[in-house]
Amino acid sequence: MIEQTELVVTEWNYNPPSIPIEEPWKISNFITLDVMKKRASTKKGIACRFSCRFVFEQETILEYVAEDSYVIDLADIIDKNELLNMVRNSYSKFRDKFDLRKLGTILSDKSLRTLEENKIDLDAMLPLLK
Question: pLDDT tens for residues 42-100?
Fold first, then answer.
């Protein structure tokens, strides 16, 4: 059995830009994914931590980090498709939380980048679940 925990926002550092943004398309954002192994005597699992940074003119406007975990029975075998679904679900929760929190900021009309699944190294992540 696989259990997903609630997404926990560990950082939300919003700094309004020091100068007016007249060219909003110049705001860029970068997303990273870190995956960590979790283990207990009766369970195994992974934690997915997404980090996002919005930047304008080399000034960080927002640093957003959140973590989501999966707890899995030791006997359960996870394949690449299941692992990819886990990452997708975590990213979806990460994006949804951003969409709620961005209201009232200069980023209210911005979206997070689409998850680039072809860049996720599932082969490197699978051994974490053995």
Answer: 899 999 999 999 999 889 999 999 999 999 999 899 999 999 999 999 999 999 999 99
The residues near 99 (Cβ < 8 Å, ≥ 6 apart) are 111
The answer to whether position 128 is within a domain reads no
CATH of residue 108's domain is 3.10.420.10
Over residues 102-118, the pLDDT tens digits come to 998 999 999 999 999 99
Has residue 127 been placed in a domain?
no
What is the residue-wise DSSP string for 64-114?
Answer: EEEEEEEEEETT----HHHHHHHHHHHHHHHHHHHHHHTTTSTTTT--PPP
**Residue 86 resides in a domain:** yes
Domain containing 53: what range? Answer: 2-119
